[in-house]
Amino acid sequence: MSKATAALAVTLVTSLGIAAQAQDRFAAETATVAEVHKALATGQISCHGLVQAYLDRIAAYDQAGPKLAAIRESNRNALKQADAVDQTRGDLATRPLACVPLVLKDNYNTAEMATTGGSSSLEGAQPKEDAAVVARLRKAGAIILAKANMQEFALGGTSISSLGGQVLNPYDLTRTPGGSSGGTGAAVASGMALAGTGSDTVNSIRSPASANNLVGLRATQALITLDGIMPVSKTQDAIGPITRTVADAAAMLQVMADPDKVKGNYTADLKPDALKGARIGVVKVLFGTKPEHAEVNRVMQSALDRLRAAGAVLVDIDDPALEADRLGAADDVQTYEFKALMNAYLASVPNAPQKDLAGIIASGKYNKPALEKFLLAAQARGDGMNEPEYKARLQRIAAFKDHLAAVFNENKLDALAYPLQKRLVVPTTEPNQADRNGIIAGLTGYPAIDVPAGFSTPTETAPLGVPVGMDLLGRPFDEGHLLGLAYAYEQATGPHRLPSSTPPLAQAH
């Protein structure tokens, strides 16, 4: 341990207000919402100390140590927000996320921090107010700890941006953390925040969850308002939480969701026997058949065995219509919708450095290798949402929704299961993450939750192995049932494993 890291370790112990004895140490880096609330209620920690502990980990591991580049900007007001919680401890009973330090993907509007989408072209862009969901999180007591780096404009899966650089995967520093919400994923996995938020147009919440041994929930489209979220596609965009446990995902969704669309209490649906008798469709066309797919297939087989052992009935679904690459090529509508939506969004930001997509392109201040092809294609569409091909794609999407509903009904399914990524998350030297399967939820708006399936075989650069995630896709607005299935599965997987690149700052003795 370096002198700087050792000093931070002392700060951590002191700031948490914890005795130096190992048994009294509060493990902020792996803490859950319930554990934080218990520790606050008993006086083991203060909210100020908890927030400082996460800020210390950011200082130690984001721009120093492994230099994950997961955080674009820490919130200078975070400790003041924590102090306010400490002054009103009684609110723990009424504010479900009291003193829960969160990192927000940098396409969520925040009143006190710029929202840039990771782009140098929008550096300093300051929204007038919080996104609607950010306001809900604050009202529930959450602390906005930082804005996370991301794939620029959420257009891709490797989490590289012109403003924040390349985010690294804390489990294997030679690989990407998935994307586009990779900064959130890396930060939560490495214990730089308790939880975070992401957005998902095709894969972008579940890809970093898969690559970082996390839980990522893409909610049913329209369950959570997108007001104040930098857009990509009105047809495909959805948002949701990225957490270390299913219970924390449920707690966050309860707050993030539109109250008039919530069915019951999501936390109450978390039952350890929820998989008994559940029918899970295993989508065969979403498993790879090449040598580079072997590690994911091995891990997924183990995960499917755990589902079966927990009482689930596995049903093979051999349906070519569910093949992800074909769906993406034929039906994805991002380039048709992006320009009009981005132009409208920029018009809502008073000091936006660029006023439209044309200005962003003309500035040259974006990661050209990652984005130029998409941005130029989107700009070239004069009126994308009036093009005949766009309307044809919407018709095919509607037909696909009907087909997916029929697959569920005819097979009497509770959920579909498949690997979110057919191959391991790619090295940072590769420009794209191929073989991702998230498009089914992206096109239909169905909810999907990614849960840790396991790790690949350990290597020199990945001492624990590279994380692999399993997607469970459920019926629209049936998040309670989906969370219940994920929770029951989670009981057989063990606790979150902290990456070896970001160990506890204060080692227990």
Notes on the structure:
There is one protein chain. By secondary structure, the chain is of the alpha/beta class. The chain has one domain: Amidase signature (AS) domain (Amidase signature (AS) enzymes). It has 16 helices and 13 strands. It has an eleven-stranded mixed β-sheet, with helices on both faces. Strands 4-5 form a two-stranded antiparallel sheet. The longest helix is centred in the C-terminal third of the chain and has 24 residues. 56% of the residues are buried. InterPro entries: Amidase_dom (IPR023631), AS_sf (IPR036928).
Give me a quick take on this structure.
The chain has helices at 3-15, 33-41, 47-61, 78-86, 132-139, 182-189, 206-211, 246-256, 294-309, 324-331, 334-347, 357-363, 368-380, 388-411, 439-444, 479-490, and strands spanning 71-74, 101-105, 143-148, 160-161, 165-166, 195-200, 215-218, 238-243, 279-283, 313-317, 415-419, 448-455, 467-473.
Structural descriptors:
eleven-stranded mixed β-sheet, 13 strands, signal, single chain, Amidase signature (AS) enzymes, AS_sf, Amidase family protein, 16 helices, two-stranded antiparallel ribbon, 509 residues, disordered N terminus, alpha/beta, 35% helix
Topology:
Blueprint: H1 3-15, H2 33-41, H3 47-61, E1 71-74, H4 78-86, E2 101-105, H5 132-139, E3 143-148, E4 160-161, E5 165-166, H6 182-189, E6 195-200, H7 206-211, E7 215-218, E8 238-243, H8 246-256, E9 279-283, H9 294-309, E10 313-317, H10 324-331, H11 334-347, H12 357-363, H13 368-380, H14 388-411, E11 415-419, H15 439-444, E12 448-455, E13 467-473, H16 479-490
Parallel strand pairs: 2-3, 2-6, 9-10, 9-11
Antiparallel strand pairs: 1-3, 4-5, 6-8, 7-8, 7-12, 11-13, 12-13
Pfam families: Amidase
Domain Amidase: 50-483
Keywords: Signal
